[in-house]
Amino acid sequence: MDILAFTYPLNAVLMIGVPIAVGYYLTRRFAQGWGIWFLGVVTFLLAQIGSGFFTRAVNGLLADSAIVSWPAVSQMALDGLLLGLSAALWEEGMRYVVLRWWAKDVRSRRDGILMGAGHGGAMAIVLGIFALFYVSQMFRYRNADLSALVPADQLAYAQAEVVRFWSQPWYFTLLNALESVSFLMVNIGLAALVMRAFLQKRSAWFLLAIVLHFVIASGRELGMAFLGPYWTEALLLLAGGLCLLPVFLWREGEEAEAA
Length: 259
Fold this sequence. Notes:
mainly alpha
């Protein structure tokens, strides 16, 4: 059996299934419904809309500046920093907006964890659906006559992409699932920090969430460009674990004391 024909679909299934399983576990563990989890889903989707407009606007401004003539390495670094800044501002900002003006009754440690699980879960599920579609296309193209499926001017690229896709090591094909788990942990930790800002009325927790999100998101982009996927995914997994640490150290009744 061709192991890639198993691991590629497995990767997509894990990206979709793990966050749903985590959501199910947390709703049962906290004896709550799925409402707060879906609130996190909506927060993620709203943040992506804002982030998309922000990124296009910034890219439009940069297109008219001398920055576009920078060396390629500098341009990659700038792109990574801008993507990280956009993700940090919009995702953490949208968490704050939703809690401040919409979900005013969502105010507990458990709510923060569930909201983060929905946010990170939505990210993983959306990317998993795209991955599943892409894998299905690659199964279709694997032994097909590509000249009958793609335009002539794209034929060479399509052929190279099919060869690249089916020649990866099996463990490489599971990296996206690992990254989804890492960002799921990151989002649970960061959502808990934003929740803590409301419970303790300290904006420093919210600002810390923005800074950490920027460092992790831009670090992911820069890591992929300069360190490669394996070191980057290892560092992301470490970052996810560190983001979860304050959640475990946060005492169960602390929100009641701070309110």
